[in-house]
Protein backbone atom coordinates (compact mmCIF):
# COMPACT_ATOMS: atom_id res chain seq x y z
CA UNK A 1 0.00 0.00 0.00
CA UNK A 2 1.46 3.35 -1.10
CA UNK A 3 0.97 6.78 0.33
CA UNK A 4 -1.58 7.53 -2.39
CA UNK A 5 -3.72 4.64 -1.26
CA UNK A 6 -4.22 6.15 2.20
CA UNK A 7 -6.40 9.05 3.21
CA UNK A 8 -5.33 11.72 5.66
CA UNK A 9 -6.76 9.84 8.60
CA UNK A 10 -4.89 6.68 7.66
CA UNK A 11 -7.85 4.81 6.15
CA UNK A 12 -7.50 3.26 2.67
CA UNK A 13 -8.71 5.40 -0.19
CA UNK A 14 -11.62 4.40 -2.37
CA UNK A 15 -9.26 3.72 -5.24
CA UNK A 16 -7.20 1.41 -3.07
CA UNK A 17 -10.30 -0.41 -1.98
CA UNK A 18 -11.41 -0.84 -5.54
CA UNK A 19 -8.03 -2.28 -6.46
CA UNK A 20 -8.19 -4.80 -3.59
CA UNK A 21 -5.36 -3.38 -1.50
CA UNK A 22 -5.65 -4.86 2.04
CA UNK A 23 -6.42 -2.48 4.83
CA UNK A 24 -3.99 -1.79 7.66
CA UNK A 25 -5.41 -2.21 11.13
CA UNK A 26 -4.09 0.42 13.47
CA UNK A 27 -4.88 -1.62 16.61
CA UNK A 28 -2.00 -4.11 15.84
CA UNK A 29 0.66 -1.50 16.00
CA UNK A 30 3.00 -1.79 19.14
CA UNK A 31 1.92 -5.37 20.25
CA UNK A 32 5.43 -6.81 19.80
CA UNK A 33 6.78 -4.91 22.78
CA UNK A 34 4.77 -6.74 25.47
CA UNK A 35 5.61 -10.05 23.84
CA UNK A 36 9.29 -9.17 23.86
CA UNK A 37 9.04 -8.12 27.50
CA UNK A 38 7.34 -11.40 28.48
CA UNK A 39 9.90 -13.46 26.62
CA UNK A 40 12.72 -11.49 28.22
CA UNK A 41 11.23 -12.02 31.70
CA UNK A 42 10.70 -15.77 31.14
CA UNK A 43 14.13 -16.32 29.65
CA UNK A 44 15.70 -14.24 32.40
CA UNK A 45 13.98 -16.31 35.11
CA UNK A 46 15.08 -19.55 33.45
CA UNK A 47 18.63 -18.26 33.15
CA UNK A 48 18.76 -17.30 36.83
CA UNK A 49 17.36 -20.68 37.90
CA UNK A 50 19.78 -22.49 35.60
CA UNK A 51 22.71 -20.47 36.94
CA UNK A 52 21.71 -21.30 40.52
CA UNK A 53 21.36 -24.99 39.65
CA UNK A 54 24.78 -25.06 38.00
CA UNK A 55 26.37 -23.26 40.96
CA UNK A 56 24.73 -25.70 43.43
CA UNK A 57 25.86 -28.67 41.34
CA UNK A 58 29.40 -27.38 41.27
CA UNK A 59 29.42 -26.89 45.05
CA UNK A 60 27.91 -30.37 45.56
CA UNK A 61 30.51 -31.91 43.28
CA UNK A 62 33.29 -30.19 45.22
CA UNK A 63 31.90 -31.42 48.55
CA UNK A 64 31.50 -34.94 47.16
CA UNK A 65 35.05 -34.90 45.81
CA UNK A 66 36.37 -33.72 49.18
CA UNK A 67 34.46 -36.44 51.00
CA UNK A 68 35.70 -39.10 48.60
CA UNK A 69 39.26 -37.83 49.08
CA UNK A 70 38.92 -37.92 52.86
CA UNK A 71 37.36 -41.39 52.75
CA UNK A 72 40.16 -42.67 50.50
CA UNK A 73 42.75 -41.09 52.78
CA UNK A 74 41.15 -42.58 55.90
CA UNK A 75 41.03 -46.00 54.22
CA UNK A 76 44.70 -45.66 53.32
CA UNK A 77 45.55 -44.75 56.92
CA UNK A 78 43.59 -47.75 58.23
CA UNK A 79 45.26 -50.11 55.77
CA UNK A 80 48.65 -48.74 56.78
CA UNK A 81 47.87 -49.20 60.47
CA UNK A 82 46.67 -52.79 59.92
CA UNK A 83 49.81 -53.54 57.93
CA UNK A 84 51.91 -52.25 60.82
CA UNK A 85 49.99 -54.35 63.34
CA UNK A 86 50.46 -57.41 61.17
CA UNK A 87 54.20 -56.65 61.28
CA UNK A 88 54.15 -56.31 65.09
CA UNK A 89 54.45 -52.52 64.97
CA UNK A 90 52.19 -50.53 67.27
CA UNK A 91 53.21 -46.93 66.70
CA UNK A 92 51.75 -43.84 64.98
CA UNK A 93 52.17 -43.94 61.21
CA UNK A 94 54.60 -41.48 59.66
CA UNK A 95 52.58 -38.32 58.82
CA UNK A 96 51.77 -38.36 55.11
CA UNK A 97 49.36 -36.50 52.86
CA UNK A 98 47.05 -38.27 50.42
CA UNK A 99 44.63 -36.37 48.19
CA UNK A 100 45.42 -33.25 50.16
CA UNK A 101 44.42 -34.86 53.48
CA UNK A 102 46.96 -35.24 56.30
CA UNK A 103 46.94 -38.78 57.74
CA UNK A 104 47.61 -39.57 61.38
CA UNK A 105 47.08 -42.71 63.44
CA UNK A 106 47.62 -43.83 67.00
CA UNK A 107 48.01 -47.33 68.42
CA UNK A 108 47.57 -48.34 72.03
CA UNK A 109 46.46 -51.46 73.85
CA UNK A 110 43.19 -51.27 75.74
CA UNK A 111 41.58 -53.50 78.37
CA UNK A 112 38.37 -53.40 80.34
CA UNK A 113 39.23 -50.60 82.74
CA UNK A 114 36.84 -51.86 85.38
CA UNK A 115 38.34 -55.34 85.22
CA UNK A 116 41.87 -55.02 83.84
CA UNK A 117 43.27 -58.25 85.27
CA UNK A 118 40.52 -60.28 83.64
CA UNK A 119 41.96 -59.43 80.24
CA UNK A 120 45.32 -61.17 80.84
CA UNK A 121 46.19 -64.80 80.26
CA UNK A 122 49.47 -64.65 82.23
CA UNK A 123 50.70 -62.14 84.81
CA UNK A 124 54.32 -62.43 85.99
CA UNK A 125 55.37 -59.55 88.24
CA UNK A 126 58.72 -61.13 89.13
CA UNK A 127 58.24 -60.17 92.77
CA UNK A 128 60.85 -61.82 95.01
CA UNK A 129 62.91 -63.16 92.11
CA UNK A 130 66.66 -62.76 91.94
CA UNK A 131 68.01 -61.01 88.80
CA UNK A 132 68.29 -63.40 85.88
CA UNK A 133 65.70 -65.88 87.16
CA UNK A 134 62.95 -66.43 84.58
CA UNK A 135 59.49 -65.54 85.81
CA UNK A 136 57.96 -67.29 82.80
CA UNK A 137 59.58 -70.63 82.00
CA UNK A 138 57.79 -72.98 79.63
CA UNK A 139 60.48 -75.61 79.15
CA UNK A 140 59.48 -77.64 82.19
CA UNK A 141 57.12 -80.48 81.45
CA UNK A 142 57.47 -80.21 77.68
CA UNK A 143 56.64 -83.41 75.87
CA UNK A 144 59.43 -82.70 73.40
CA UNK A 145 61.97 -80.05 72.54
CA UNK A 146 59.42 -78.27 70.32
CA UNK A 147 56.27 -79.00 72.29
CA UNK A 148 53.45 -76.60 71.55
CA UNK A 149 52.13 -74.74 74.57
CA UNK A 150 49.39 -72.28 73.78
CA UNK A 151 48.97 -69.03 75.70
CA UNK A 152 45.95 -67.51 74.00
CA UNK A 153 45.76 -64.04 75.51
CA UNK A 154 47.69 -60.95 76.60
CA UNK A 155 50.65 -61.32 78.97
CA UNK A 156 51.90 -58.92 81.65
CA UNK A 157 55.56 -58.95 82.70
CA UNK A 158 56.88 -56.94 85.63
CA UNK A 159 59.95 -54.71 85.86
CA UNK A 160 63.11 -56.49 84.69
CA UNK A 161 61.14 -59.72 84.33
CA UNK A 162 62.83 -62.32 82.15
CA UNK A 163 61.34 -65.26 80.32
CA UNK A 164 62.66 -68.59 79.16
CA UNK A 165 60.76 -70.33 76.39
CA UNK A 166 63.68 -71.70 74.39
CA UNK A 167 62.97 -74.66 72.10
CA UNK A 168 59.23 -74.54 72.56
CA UNK A 169 56.52 -72.64 70.75
CA UNK A 170 55.00 -71.14 73.86
CA UNK A 171 53.39 -67.95 72.66
CA UNK A 172 50.79 -68.89 70.07
CA UNK A 173 48.03 -66.29 70.26
CA UNK A 174 44.78 -66.65 68.40
CA UNK A 175 44.69 -64.87 65.06
CA UNK A 176 42.08 -62.23 64.36
CA UNK A 177 41.93 -60.21 61.13
CA UNK A 178 45.43 -61.50 60.37
CA UNK A 179 46.80 -59.80 63.49
CA UNK A 180 48.17 -61.65 66.52
CA UNK A 181 45.96 -59.78 68.93
CA UNK A 182 46.09 -62.48 71.57
CA UNK A 183 49.87 -62.44 71.92
CA UNK A 184 50.36 -58.88 73.04
CA UNK A 185 52.78 -58.46 75.95
CA UNK A 186 52.46 -55.56 78.37
CA UNK A 187 55.89 -54.87 79.78
CA UNK A 188 56.39 -52.75 82.89
CA UNK A 189 59.26 -50.30 82.40
CA UNK A 190 60.81 -47.61 84.59
CA UNK A 191 60.40 -43.94 83.73
CA UNK A 192 58.69 -42.65 80.64
CA UNK A 193 56.73 -45.11 78.57
CA UNK A 194 57.46 -44.97 74.83
CA UNK A 195 55.13 -46.35 72.17
CA UNK A 196 56.86 -49.71 72.06
CA UNK A 197 59.85 -51.41 73.60
CA UNK A 198 62.23 -54.20 72.72
CA UNK A 199 61.16 -57.60 74.08
CA UNK A 200 62.72 -58.13 77.52
CA UNK A 201 64.83 -61.05 76.30
CA UNK A 202 66.70 -61.91 73.13
CA UNK A 203 64.60 -62.47 70.03
CA UNK A 204 65.82 -66.05 69.86
CA UNK A 205 63.90 -66.77 73.07
CA UNK A 206 60.57 -66.13 71.34
CA UNK A 207 58.82 -68.02 68.62
CA UNK A 208 58.57 -66.18 65.32
CA UNK A 209 57.16 -63.74 64.56
CA UNK A 210 57.87 -61.71 67.69
CA UNK A 211 54.87 -60.93 69.87
CA UNK A 212 53.66 -57.36 70.05
CA UNK A 213 55.30 -55.71 73.05
CA UNK A 214 53.84 -52.61 74.68
CA UNK A 215 55.21 -50.88 77.75
CA UNK A 216 53.20 -49.90 80.80
CA UNK A 217 54.97 -47.92 83.51
CA UNK A 218 52.12 -47.99 86.05
CA UNK A 219 53.09 -51.24 87.75
CA UNK A 220 50.77 -54.14 88.41
CA UNK A 221 49.47 -52.79 91.73
CA UNK A 222 47.99 -49.82 89.87
CA UNK A 223 46.95 -51.78 86.80
CA UNK A 224 45.01 -54.23 88.93
CA UNK A 225 44.50 -53.41 92.62
CA UNK A 226 43.91 -56.36 94.95
CA UNK A 227 40.40 -57.69 94.38
CA UNK A 228 37.80 -58.42 96.99
CA UNK A 229 38.77 -61.72 98.59
CA UNK A 230 36.50 -64.75 98.69
CA UNK A 231 35.61 -66.39 101.99
CA UNK A 232 37.73 -69.27 103.24
CA UNK A 233 35.81 -72.50 102.43
CA UNK A 234 34.33 -74.00 105.57
CA UNK A 235 34.15 -77.56 104.22
CA UNK A 236 36.91 -79.90 103.10
CA UNK A 237 37.68 -80.57 99.46
CA UNK A 238 35.66 -83.62 98.46
CA UNK A 239 34.70 -85.73 95.48
CA UNK A 240 31.15 -84.85 94.42
CA UNK A 241 28.34 -87.38 94.18
CA UNK A 242 28.14 -86.38 90.51
CA UNK A 243 31.36 -88.28 89.79
CA UNK A 244 31.25 -91.18 87.34
CA UNK A 245 33.85 -93.67 86.18
CA UNK A 246 34.53 -91.42 83.16
CA UNK A 247 34.63 -88.11 85.07
CA UNK A 248 35.90 -87.17 88.51
CA UNK A 249 34.03 -84.17 89.94
CA UNK A 250 35.32 -82.11 92.89
CA UNK A 251 33.26 -79.82 95.09
CA UNK A 252 34.76 -76.56 96.43
CA UNK A 253 36.55 -76.80 99.76
CA UNK A 254 39.85 -76.74 101.63
CA UNK A 255 42.64 -79.31 101.36
CA UNK A 256 45.62 -79.27 103.70
CA UNK A 257 48.78 -81.29 103.09
CA UNK A 258 49.54 -84.15 100.75
CA UNK A 259 49.10 -84.13 96.99
CA UNK A 260 46.35 -83.94 94.42
CA UNK A 261 46.93 -85.89 91.22
CA UNK A 262 44.65 -85.21 88.27
CA UNK A 263 45.36 -87.88 85.66
CA UNK A 264 41.91 -88.54 84.16
CA UNK A 265 39.01 -86.38 82.99
CA UNK A 266 38.22 -84.08 85.90
CA UNK A 267 35.75 -81.25 86.51
CA UNK A 268 36.05 -78.78 89.41
CA UNK A 269 32.66 -77.30 90.21
CA UNK A 270 32.36 -73.49 90.35
CA UNK A 271 33.41 -71.98 93.67
CA UNK A 272 36.46 -71.37 95.89
CA UNK A 273 39.24 -73.93 96.43
CA UNK A 274 41.89 -73.42 99.11
CA UNK A 275 45.08 -75.49 99.07
CA UNK A 276 47.56 -75.39 101.96
CA UNK A 277 50.86 -77.28 101.56
CA UNK A 278 49.42 -79.28 98.66
CA UNK A 279 51.38 -80.46 95.62
CA UNK A 280 48.97 -80.44 92.65
CA UNK A 281 49.92 -82.31 89.46
CA UNK A 282 47.77 -82.34 86.35
CA UNK A 283 48.58 -84.92 83.69
CA UNK A 284 45.08 -85.39 82.29
CA UNK A 285 42.37 -83.09 80.96
CA UNK A 286 40.82 -80.85 83.61
CA UNK A 287 38.17 -78.13 83.63
CA UNK A 288 37.99 -75.62 86.50
CA UNK A 289 34.71 -73.71 86.53
CA UNK A 290 32.39 -73.55 83.54
CA UNK A 291 30.96 -71.08 81.07
CA UNK A 292 28.26 -71.75 78.50
CA UNK A 293 29.81 -72.95 75.26
CA UNK A 294 33.24 -73.75 76.69
CA UNK A 295 35.30 -74.98 73.72
CA UNK A 296 37.10 -77.71 75.65
CA UNK A 297 35.36 -80.03 78.10
CA UNK A 298 37.12 -83.21 79.27
CA UNK A 299 35.71 -86.27 77.55
CA UNK A 300 33.13 -87.91 79.81
CA UNK A 301 32.41 -84.72 81.78
CA UNK A 302 30.00 -83.14 79.29
CA UNK A 303 26.86 -83.83 81.35
CA UNK A 304 28.31 -82.55 84.63
CA UNK A 305 29.81 -79.44 83.04
CA UNK A 306 26.57 -78.57 81.25
CA UNK A 307 24.70 -78.67 84.57
CA UNK A 308 26.88 -75.99 86.23
CA UNK A 309 27.58 -72.41 85.22
CA UNK A 310 30.08 -70.17 86.99
CA UNK A 311 33.73 -69.44 87.67
CA UNK A 312 36.18 -70.91 90.16
CA UNK A 313 39.24 -69.61 92.00
CA UNK A 314 42.16 -71.54 93.52
CA UNK A 315 43.95 -69.98 96.49
CA UNK A 316 47.45 -71.30 97.32
CA UNK A 317 48.82 -71.12 100.84
CA UNK A 318 51.97 -72.53 102.43
CA UNK A 319 54.07 -74.65 100.04
CA UNK A 320 51.24 -75.36 97.57
CA UNK A 321 52.28 -75.56 93.91
CA UNK A 322 50.67 -76.48 90.60
CA UNK A 323 52.44 -78.53 87.92
CA UNK A 324 50.72 -79.03 84.56
CA UNK A 325 52.79 -81.88 83.14
CA UNK A 326 51.70 -82.78 79.60
CA UNK A 327 48.10 -82.27 80.70
CA UNK A 328 45.43 -79.78 79.68
CA UNK A 329 43.66 -77.51 82.13
CA UNK A 330 41.15 -74.73 81.43
CA UNK A 331 40.32 -72.18 84.13
CA UNK A 332 37.17 -70.10 84.02
CA UNK A 333 37.71 -67.42 86.68
CA UNK A 334 35.49 -66.39 89.52
CA UNK A 335 34.36 -62.75 89.54
CA UNK A 336 35.34 -61.19 92.86
CA UNK A 337 33.67 -57.94 93.88
CA UNK A 338 30.91 -56.06 92.07
CA UNK A 339 30.56 -53.23 89.60
CA UNK A 340 33.66 -51.19 88.77
CA UNK A 341 35.70 -53.05 91.42
CA UNK A 342 35.01 -56.52 90.01
CA UNK A 343 37.96 -58.73 89.06
CA UNK A 344 38.07 -62.09 87.30
CA UNK A 345 40.54 -64.32 89.15
CA UNK A 346 41.61 -67.94 88.62
CA UNK A 347 44.66 -68.32 90.92
CA UNK A 348 45.71 -66.40 94.03
CA UNK A 349 48.61 -66.48 96.47
CA UNK A 350 49.77 -63.97 99.10
CA UNK A 351 53.16 -62.90 100.41
CA UNK A 352 51.59 -62.37 103.84
CA UNK A 353 48.55 -63.91 105.50
CA UNK A 354 45.51 -62.11 104.09
CA UNK A 355 41.79 -62.42 104.66
CA UNK A 356 42.11 -65.68 106.58
CA UNK A 357 44.33 -67.28 103.91
CA UNK A 358 47.87 -68.35 104.78
CA UNK A 359 50.83 -66.76 102.99
CA UNK A 360 52.63 -68.69 100.28
CA UNK A 361 56.00 -69.97 101.48
CA UNK A 362 57.24 -70.93 98.00
CA UNK A 363 60.59 -69.35 97.21
CA UNK A 364 60.22 -68.05 93.63
CA UNK A 365 63.98 -68.30 93.11
CA UNK A 366 63.88 -72.04 93.59
CA UNK A 367 60.35 -73.27 92.87
CA UNK A 368 57.63 -72.19 90.45
CA UNK A 369 54.27 -71.58 92.06
CA UNK A 370 52.69 -72.56 88.74
CA UNK A 371 54.82 -74.70 86.44
CA UNK A 372 53.46 -75.17 82.95
Into which percentage range does the β-strand content fall?
15-25%
Q: Average pLDDT, to the nearest integer?
A: 75
Radius of gyration: 41 Å
Gross geometry: elongated
> How many alpha or pi helices?
4
| Arrangement of strands in the largest sheet | 9-10-13-16-19
Q: What is the ordering of alpha helices and beta strands? A: HHEEEEEEEEHEEEEEEEEHEEEEEEE
Could you estimate the helical fraction of the residues in percent?
Answer: 10-25%
Number of strands: 23
| Low-confidence runs | 110-117, 172-183, 199-210
**Main beta sheet: strand number and arrangement?**
5 strands, mixed
Distance between the termini: 124 Å
What class would the helix/strand composition place it in? alpha/beta
Amino acid sequence: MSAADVTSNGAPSRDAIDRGVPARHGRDRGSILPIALVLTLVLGSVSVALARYVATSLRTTKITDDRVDRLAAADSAMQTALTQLDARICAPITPVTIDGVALTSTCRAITRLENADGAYAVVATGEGLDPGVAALDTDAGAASANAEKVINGPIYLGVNTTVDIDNTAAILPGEEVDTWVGGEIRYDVDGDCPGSVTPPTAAADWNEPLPLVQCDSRGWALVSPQPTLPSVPASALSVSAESTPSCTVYSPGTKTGGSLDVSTSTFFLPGTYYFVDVEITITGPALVGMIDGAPRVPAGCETQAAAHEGGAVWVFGGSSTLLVDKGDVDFYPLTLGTGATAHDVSLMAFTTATGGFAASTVDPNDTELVNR
